[in-house]
Amino acid sequence: MSSIEENKKHLFVVPQLAIKAANKGYVDKYPIAHYVKGSNGNGDEFENWTLYFGGGTFFASDFDKHIPAPTYAEIVDWFRGKHSILIKIDPCELTVFYAWIRDCRNGKNKIVYDSPLTNDYYEALNKAIERAFELI
Asked: pTM to 2 decimals?
């Protein structure tokens, strides 16, 4: 991982979530970063996604090798704005977190996910985002 990637590793969602977002209809034609699927130079592809900064225009046909890398804030906002699903991470203590999801679709206002406690904020957030994808 490059020093830029290390410093920004919690700014952008992990590649697995970026792929799910693209497959669920998340579109960002002008991303500030994107993931590119790696290759060994012989034409053989492998599941090694590298984060690149800089924009580009992406179309559905590009999604096999280039995936927009949304920030965590963009994904949480997308769930809230497009799907009326609220994702929240709360601290229980200084280093213990839990996540919950509130489903506000169709006039509902129901908590549909309440995570177990974790010592890692981004672990809680990733699990909540995974669960939110199951709702749409």
From this structure: 0.78
